[in-house]
Amino acid sequence: MIKQLVKSAEKLIETSKNIVIVSHKNPDGDAVGSSMGLHFFLKNMGIESTVILPNDFPDFLKWMPGVETALNFEKQNSQSVNALEKADLIFTLDFNSLSRVGDMNQFLEKSEACFIMIDHHQQPDDYAAVMYSDPSIGSTCEMVFHFIKAFEKVDLIDSDIATLLYTGIMTDTGSFRFPSTTAVTHNVIAQLLNAGANNAEIHQNVYDANSQSRIKLLGIALDNLHVLEEYNTAYITLSQEELDKNNFKKGDTEGFVNYALSVTGIIFAVIFIENRQEKIVKMSLRSKGDFSVNDVARDHYNGGGHINAAGGKSELSLEETVTQFISILPQYKEALTA
Q1: How large is the angle between the packed helices 159-172 and 140-150, nearest 10 degrees?
Q2: Residue 217 above 90 pLDDT?
Q3: 37 touches 119 (CB < 8 A)
Q4: Which of 78, 91, 282, 292 fits a 20 to 30 Å CA distance from 318?
Q5: Is 3's pLDDT higher than 90?
């Protein structure tokens, strides 16, 4: 199936003069890695492209190869808009609904360009001429590798591309511990290592470069951990005041929710993070086994994602959001305690 998709994509690529690659708002390792990895692959084919990210991404990803060349839609708006208006082919990576790009959405919706989607989230919208969508795969970076392989051009994966794709796979699979990590994933990783990815260095750059303020914020988050044993559920809260007191930077709370999920007996974990500037409470939801946080996020929090990892938001206050969250748990009790 992917070979048929790639044939269609290849025709679009060959006939396009202005290719743009975009990813979702608040880009993570998979979003940045897949976007830049595809960009460098096209470059190695002799094809130019422009990467546009809706906004900034965490400091612990700033070391990734080539990221300084990506346009930031918020900070480089005129350049980004110009590239989008000229585009005749737009790749959308690591998201499947145009609403996921924030203010850039209006330019994508009115664009006359053809779209190619590469994404691993559930329930994709129908906007792309070529749609490579597979929720069973643990990361978009792994999908980009399969995309390249279907082109029969794996030899064009250099050390930069290997590093970018490895980083995205590593971060989106929780360092290869999530159920979506398969034998195929490990086979892809082996090929990326052979192509020049330095796994020890990548892990150190992502996970071992914590600021003092981030460590202190983690301490506060753990102090705010609440366990609801009746529902095998745990949650963490972080208020805007707590974030401000600890010099919060984008990405500082990455992975915090996993500490709640690691508590013995916990199946469902959530972190609630207040964002007064956007007037929302951001949520990251995680689970074990068959309990679908994607369903919870879609049904209650205008979000979504995967069975075991999803995101959402609430326009209530932090306190009201937590109260509302606790109020919905009874409807999931059977699934959480089975």
Answers
A1: 140
A2: yes
A3: no
A4: 292
A5: no
Percentage of the chain beyond pLDDT 90 is 93
Statement: residue 338 has pLDDT above 90: no
- Whole-number Cα distances in Å, 159 to 154, 164, 241, 267: 12, 9, 42, 38
Q: Which amino acid is at 210?
A: N
* 3 state SS of 204: helix
251-298: pLDDT as tens digits: 999 999 999 999 999 999 999 999 999 999 999 999 999 999 999 999
- Count of C-beta atoms within a 10 Å radius of residue 261: 21
Structure tokens at 33: 């890695």
- Residue 180's SS3 state is coil
Give the pair of three-digit tokens for residue 180. Answer: 């979506």
Annotation: CATH topology of 2-207: inorganic pyrophosphatase (n-terminal core) (3.90.1640)
Residues of each domain in the chain carrying CATH 3.10.310.30: 212-337
The CATH 3.90.1640.10 domain(s) of the chain lie at 2-207
The Cα–Cα gap between 209 and 328 comes to: 38
CA distance 59 to 51: 18
pLDDT band at 216 (very low <50, low <70, confident <90, very high): very high
CA distances from 149 to 23, 87, 155 (A): 21, 25, 9
CB 260 within 8 A of CB 234: yes
Q: What is the pTM of this model?
A: 0.91
**Looking at the DSSP assignment, which residues form a beta bridge with residue 275?**
280
Token pair of 176 as six digits? 């290869």
What is the CATH architecture of 212-337? Answer: Roll (3.10)
- 272 in Cβ contact with 235 (< 8 Å): yes
Question: pLDDT for 224-247, tens place per residue?
Answer: 999 999 999 999 999 999 999 999
Return d(Cα 186, Cα 164) in angstroms, integer.
16
